[in-house]
Design goal:
The chain is an alpha+beta fold. The chain has five helices and eleven strands. The strands form two sheets. Strands 1, 7, 8, 9, 10 and 11 form a six-stranded antiparallel sheet that branches. Helix 2 packs across helix 3.
């Protein structure tokens, strides 16, 4: 897929979590996970249903696919539009992709009404997301450059100024460096390298990937 057709950045769940709220003695337990396909999402739903087989409802919502998105939800026996749709609205509202959530309800004996159900299921999803690790992936290019040692300080300074991650540095007769450059910074990066080196350093692109900050470290994901 050409870079121009790829999503430049998106948010997703890196590590799923579980959150719970209680509303008028009804327990709402949310499980959140990262998924890459509708099949994975449905498998996760079935896993939670088996684990909480004795619950009255196991409602779910998920969104998968980048850039072509598929979104699905289920009320699982709750009144129409009171569970799955509000859950999906939370995922969409937070601009999350490739994410599934299942909210299990243990009935507490008191009817909540349609408005109460909408609020409870929405709040449960939000609680589950708070207990999850959410990251933002940015489309990047892997860039390799060869230079002599006199240029090393300038390029390192430029990388630090632009907050770029240096993936690898090889020291031999000269220096070979591989960096991760966000797609939206690529053209300005090339311009600055050319100016800083008077055209002596020619960056070469080695493909695209997604990069994300994960708890203070950069991780690379397939594009």
């Amino acid at each position: 897929m050409a870079d121009e057709n790829r999503v430049k950045s998106y948010k997703t769940v890196y590590r799923g979590g579980m959150g719970e709220i209680v509303e008028k003695k009804s327990r709402f337990i949310a499980h959140v996970a990262h998924v890459e396909s509708e099949e994975e999402a449905l498998a996760f739903v079935e896993k939670i249903k088996k684990e909480y087989w004795d619950a009255r409802h196991n409602c779910h919502a998920f969104t998968v696919g980048i850039p072509h998105e598929t979104a699905r939800c289920s009320d699982d026996g709750e009144p129409a539009q009171t569970a799955g749709k509000p859950m999906l609205d939370v995922l969409i509202g937070q601009k999350l992709k490739n994410t599934v959530v299942v909210v299990t309800r243990y009935f507490g004996g008191t009817l909540l009404g349609t408005g109460g159900l909408v609020r409870a299921y929405s709040a449960a999803v939000q609680e589950g997301l708070r207990e999850s690790l959410i990251i933002e992936k940015h489309l990047c290019r892997k860039v390799r450059m060869s230079m002599d040692y006199t240029m090393l300080g300038k390029i390192q300074y430029l990388a630090a100024k632009l907050n770029l991650m240096i993936l690898d540095t090889l020291y031999t007769d000269g220096v070979e460096m591989q960096l991760l450059v966000p797609d939206e910074q690529f053209q300005s990066f090339i311009k600055e390298v050319t100016e800083a080196s008077n055209g002596k350093v020619a960056p070469e692109t080695e493909g695209s990937c997604y990069g994300a900050d994960v708890e203070g470290r950069t991780e690379i994901f397939d594009a």
